[in-house]
UniProtKB/TrEMBL annotation:
InterPro entries recorded: HTH-type_LysR_regulators (IPR050950), LysR_HTH_N (IPR000847), LysR_subst-bd (IPR005119), WH-like_DNA-bd_sf (IPR036388), WH_DNA-bd_sf (IPR036390)
Record family assignment: Belongs to the LysR transcriptional regulatory family.
Name of protein: LysR family transcriptional regulator
Domain (HTH lysR-type) ranges: 1-58
Protein's organism: Alteromonas profundi
Gene3D superfamilies: 3.40.190.290, Winged helix-like DNA-binding domain superfamily/Winged helix DNA-binding domain (1.10.10.10)
Pfam families, alphabetized: HTH_1 (PF00126), LysR_substrate (PF03466)
Coiled-coil positions: none
Keywords: DNA-binding, Transcription, Transcription regulation
Amino acid sequence: MNFKQLHYFLTTVNKGSIAAAARELDIAQPAISQQLASLERELGGPLLTRSFSGVTLTPAGKVFFNHAIKLVDDLSLAKNELSAFFTQQESVVKVGMLPSIGNVLSMPLIAEVKSAHPKLKLEISTGPSYAVKSWLETGQIDIALTYEQEMNSKLMSVEPLIREDLHLVTSASPSNPEYQHLLSRDTIAFWEMSQFSLLSPSSKDALGRLIAHYEKLTGVSLQHDRAYSGQLMTGLRQVMQGEGVMILPTSAVFHLQESNLVKLLKIVDPEMPRMVLAATNKTAALNDASAKILSVIKQVVAKEQALNHWCGTLAFAQHVSYSTAAASGSLMSSCIGK
């Protein structure tokens, strides 16, 4: 017994004849007759009395008719539920971001997506800004979290997330006397950074280009004489060992600052802000799954900013209320001097 046989049986009974059922179902009469005959053989006896005027139910057919209705209804319900289930099966959204962004967003973003959208799977890749840009342009990722210096207006649709503050990151260890006089300070002027060996990326990277821009703007040349692998964690190890300083947002180092392993001084005179963007590829339509992930990204950015893990000013309206926001002030405020 199968759904087709049940469907043909009910249609034939409701229409009163095999010919009428064939017209309703838009199939040949012999096909219906064959299926009805197979059903009757399986059940062990005739369900319909056939005549020139049409069909009528036998006593056994009357009993089976009510069961057939229930069986078809149950099968239809199961089919609809399974269809909805399979259409809501796990969708994969691939997000690329820089290590500094990944340090603050990856874990809470994964947790929030798992909680709010259990049918969505989030895949995160981290790399330098130029790599993240390339991944988006070639369709290897769906969303890029990157900086305005990497924006390509012809290929990218962007949404600003946060105008982050850049800080000078130094060792917090008293065993590094070169930086001891900085431990009691919260800010540093751009020109003062020229006193220290700077671990900085090349101009291929968005941060390297931003630093070069401020050197040109201020006329101050910084010391780029220390070897830097370009790997964030390796550079931070060098900083903690007193081998140089770095220019970074708090998102990259808040965990080390909380452990008193590094000291952060906000760069002033001039300040060094930069805009963090969520970018998607214009050549591909934004699907529902990616739109949901973008919404979660904004929520997590706002939460981490409210926790002072990411110092800067939100670049979008945030309507979600967090208990941490009340403790740390407005969601839109910056953590000056952190």
